[in-house]
Amino acid sequence: MIRVPTGPVRNASMASRLYTWARWAVRRRRWVIAAWILLFAVVGGLGAALHGKTSTEFTVPGVESQRAQDLLKQKFPPAAGGVVRIVVAAPKGASVTDPAEQKALNGALRKAETVPGVVVVSRPASSGAVSADGTIAYADVRFKQEAAEVPQSAKDDLSTVMEPVRDAGMQVELGGSAMLPQTKAGGPAELVGVLIAFAILAVALGSLVAAGLPLVTALVGVGVGVLGTMFVSRFVTMTGTATTLALMIGLAVGIDYALFVISRHREQLDDPDTQWEESIARATATAGSAVVFAGATVVIALAALAITGIPFLTVMGLAGAVTVLIAVLVAISLLPAVLGVFGERMRPRRKNRTSKRQNRAPGAWGLTWARAVTRAPAAVLLVGVVGLLAIALPARDLRLGLPSYASQPDTSTQHRSYDLLTKGFGPGFNATLTTVIDTDGIPKDQRQATVTELRGALSADTDVTAVSAPVSNPVGDLTVMAVVPKSSPDAQATTDLVHRLRENATTVADAGGTLYVTGQTAMAIDVAGKLADALPLFIAIIVILALILLTIAFRSVLVPLKAALGFLLSVGASLGAAVWVFQQGHANGLLDVAATGPVPSFLPVLLIGVLFGLAMDYEVFLVSRMREHHEHSGDPAEAIAQGISRSARVVVAAALIMVAVFGGFIFNEDPIIKAIGFALAFGVFVDAFIVRMTLVPAAMALIGRHAWSMPGWLGRLVPDVDIEGARLPAPAPAELSTSISAPGNPVDGKAAIRL
Question: Are residues 254 and 109 in the same domain?
Fold first, then answer.
């Protein structure tokens, strides 16, 4: 029976502060709810009316390909502009050079020159851009803006002016650097994920009203976070993936955090002597403490993406971190206020339990599972660890990169243009590299000879199909040549070629110049290399962070070590599965993966950051219930069983919700979002069901009472945050709880529903 304290709260810990705060939020619920509605309206209005433009490029300042782009922009602006490549295919039995087809194509290209922002339009016949069999050709439309700055209206205009070519029976597709598609979220698949989450909530909480509350509060938090991110995009360069990530993570953790608090509240209200206001405060103090701690780990892990030194990844991490922070604030402020509105209506209905099934104690299946796992803990650990290591094996072949147009949906114009160019000019044509030679330091009479010698060296490479004639800027101090590989953009051979081409830099440097290799393919390779270099440091920081946070949470040394090792197993298994699907091509049809290729370069870093926070969520909620029971009983074995019994239902529901929400993004058309959604959904499933629900109790059983001990000197250094609420004030008589209820806050359900 839970009752209101008779005296002041002493030894103010996290739990006691949240207890006091929740009681205030319940009694001032009108003001709390009004404040959140006002915040949502203000931020929503700013985000909707004053949002900026999201970028489609993943660039990294300082890498060679970006330095080359900056140099082109400075010294040779026309060569730095974005390109829309118009690819045409003649109808069966005809050629693009036939008079009728040539007339239609030339007329459309003349109109393309009038599209705002266009600098120059090449002609296939004069530029050698016709395939050997004459069935496929392309024309490059170069804009004065950089690729990411070319407006969608200009691309639409180009598609419109090509209508006469389509009417002539030819196929027309658009590719090139300026055609990177915008990331979109919020489609039917994501909606299905939310509906599945609602069904899980209804089963877990046993009430449609209770199931709806986490969705409502999560949507409020996500709305504030995502719309706020859209407003910030007006001032900060942000990729579309950043807002999608904020939506994905914010929705998942928002639902989960509300679920943890509401399930604890309803568990307490199952006791008829428990007053609803006191129960809200207690639930916020205990489950809310775990939410704050778990949310802090997610926020810190996402914010830690800033250490990579990559701006787009930093912004992506901060956008997700802010959204998670808002989800935590919603769970400990708006949610208690809303629960206060419903008051007595949140109490589970008393049922006449006549059947054997109905007479089972709550959490009975969790208790059975815990005791089964701990009956042979060594065998469970061995099988579980070996199984996860087997799933992680494909990660040994991990290759990082950015998806080419081959990874876009089969129905997209980018994918079809890729296929036509591959058919007409070979797979390496889509991986064309740009060499930029800064000849400013080379004597004028030696520049041509140096460039000619370099062209010969580049052409001699066994993986090079062709090298274009050199083109210099008007001043003559910068020269550009295109290099066409034999291999596709996603092939390892192309990555090796880029590194070999850059080996010629020393020859150019000896003459006084500088050689750069750039282009979309080179940029993707450079971004992948930069992220691969940052990965070991990031993993080390995350693991150390886990050890510190969990040591503070549980005042233990062995529990954090066990948690960190389990986290590494989850990450390894998730990366292994991602490589197996997206890089090696298994289950492509089932997941609608258009083409195999390298894993998105920032996926491992992002996966580690997000999965770390979510793994710590489940670790905190499971182990805190174990520690809570151990504090009262002193029996390590029973603490494991009772901790799993009391938390299994809600952790399983929370994990299924995460999997449903993340899984909905697997069917997003964007290959990057698809890969992120799959890796997170698989990682959460493995971490929750295999690591936390199986390996954790087995490991805790082997550790025994040592799990809850630490050296005395360390115990004096580590603060006692009391996330279990062990130091909350002692209960008082139920009559006192009713009598001291705040004025205007009656405890009967009918009155409590009023705002």
Answer: no
